[in-house]
Amino acid sequence: xxxxxxxxxxxxxxxxxxxxxxxxxxxxxxxxxxxxxxxxxxxxxxxxxxxxxxxxxxxxxxxxxxxxxxxxxxxxxxxxxxxxxxxxxxxxxxxxxxxxxxxxxxxxxxxxxxxxxxxxxxxxxxxxxxxxxxxxxxxxxxxxxxxxxxxxxxxxxxxxxxxxxxxxxxxxxxxxxxxxxxxxxxxxxxxxxxxxxxxxxxxxxxxxxxxxxxxxxxxxxxxxxxxxxxxxxxxxxxxxxxxxxxxxxxxxxxxxxxxxxxxxxxxxxxxxxxxxxxxxxxxxxxxxxxxxxxxxxxxxxxxxxxxxxxxxxxxxxxxxxxxxxxxxxxxxxxxxxxxxxxxxxxxxxxxxxxxxxxxxxxxxxx
Length: 366
Known about the structure:
This protein is an alpha/beta fold. It has 18 helices and 14 strands. It has 3 domains: 1-63, DNA polymerase, domain 1 (Orthogonal Bundle), CATH 1.10.150; 109-297, Rossmann fold (3-Layer(aba) Sandwich); 308-365, Winged helix-like DNA-binding domain superfamily/Winged helix DNA-binding domain (Arc Repressor Mutant, subunit A). Strands 1-2-6-5-4-3-7-8-9 form a 9-stranded mixed sheet, sandwiched between helices. A 3-stranded antiparallel sheet has the order 12-14-13. A two-stranded antiparallel ribbon has the order 10-11. The longest helix is centred in the middle third of the chain and has 16 residues, at 125-140. It is elongated and about 80 Å long.
């Protein structure tokens, strides 16, 4: 058995965790030696009870390592361990880095320049627009957007990064064989197909639970150089992620919201506690402008002046909205474009910050 296989096997055993395994490796010298150690030697290590030692001794009875590795290969996935050069460097510096990461897609060296965007699952139109716009601007500037593929803010952060043709990392609170939420499977496929990676520390068929989501949050907090909270209630997973990142010395950014919305309460509390108030991607890029990226400084792409020249449907819609506020049917008449193309283009223009949707499904130039 190789060291890599032994680490994967240890990761598949329940109720052990990376901290205990690290102690065991420090004691025995290798992951392989742990799996062959006698019960008495295992219980001599701090934090190792007889039940845990017995689980390690009988590991072949409780997990099927060969089947797990075959599934990984058959699905075109990969597994990186802390010993591999492709393991994310920021995670190595954390207190309890994952033993292994299951990867769908590709982790690149530049992904160490990452910013997390997190927030509420139940979000407002304001939160959706803000999440997409921040993600678009920051990803277009070269930062990798890290989030949790959850409903709400996470989903729109990933979509904004993809729209900018940037990179995004989705960290799951489940195994890669149990994509959650299931309606985000298409988004996960899009990320893995050239826009970044979907990753998990859990064995393939691990179902999401109240235990796995906090574990996911610690990875998001550790991977990113800073965390942006777009919209969240007073107590939420996003708030937990921000607190974890703060304990790691990371910068916390928060977007203010309406004072009467419960989904703004978490951001307002973070701002009172010292988080940096931001209203656009430029605020964050200005704050981290000295961060090296791709052998040079961050090249910010902010506001319409830094966006590429518009053409085709984008130019047609922007011109139609020049000095006008139009409904979808009026845009269809003014542009002669099909409905599907108008909807898709409006979404992209909203993310870029060029078009704003008003109440009543009306659109205007921003």
